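User: Mind token order:
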Amino acid sequence: MNVVSPLANWIPYRLEYIDQDWLVHWLYLGDKRMDDPFFDETIRYCRSKQRRVSRFESSSGAALLKANDMTALKPKAFVFHVSRCGSTLLSQAFAQSESCISISEAPLLDEILRSNEHDPSVSNAQREEWFKAALSWMGQLRTGRESSYIIKLDSWHIHFYGLLREWFPEVPFFFLTRRPAEVLASHKKMKGIHMVPGLVDPLLLKMKGWDGEAVKWDFNLFAAGVLMHYYTELRGILELGSRFNRFFDYSEGAKEMLESFSEFTGIELETKMYERLKFHSKSAGLTFDTEPKVEDVSTVACREAYKEFINAI
């Protein structure tokens, strides 16, 4: 007889440093698939359901992260991106298949990677243990139909490439880029947190000097600087060389992006994945319209960094 673990369908979703100790918060998924455009949406939905049952939160010490005895998939690919370059559409397309677990920007993974910002004593070995344990919880087999596991990271995790490649030496890393004018035009409409000075550690973004007084600076200039450093970092990764890395620019097309990722990772495409490309990446209910030409607010340095990277591919 198969015994279902009492922790089945539970996943860790937040890591918090309180009173010199680490606390893990837990989320009960029930039968909810993790197929939202962003993992924050899954968290909000499940927490709302939990509050109807109990006013208490489920939390534990970090040691419970290692207590997973359930069968879980290993990551099939990590998706890196410069933001607003098709990564959400890519993760959404593969999320359409019940055979694919597609995690999109889970806050917990970022909190683990950046845990030493709160506690400098956290070692790389500790972060690796937590990170892999978190992936195992989120990659648990819940229906028995799952066969592929994709993790889309936050854009600034490009700067964690060395660490992540050390932890996952043979896992495919798929890097998505886009022309700077189009990326920055999207952020001009609605900025991501990494494009707002002070919301993400400026040292992490390679933006030393943009600290507490940064809000007085030009937001477009800051965003162009962040993007420039992404391209510069990607050029360095490209020069390192790895057969487990692939680079794709969104200007080549959404369909081509899907097919390149499939060919690289070995994850088979389904008709429903192509169908998802017809709709807005962040809202499956909105039909996608071709984007109009945009004003280029990128700096010369940003455009040059992009051009150097693209010419090197």
Q: What stands out?
A: The mean pLDDT is 91. Strands lie at 10-18, 21-28, 59-61, 77-81, 100-104, 148-152, 173-177, 245-249, 279-280, 283-287. The domain at 73-99+147-312 is CATH 3.40.50 (Rossmann fold). The chain has ten helices and ten strands.
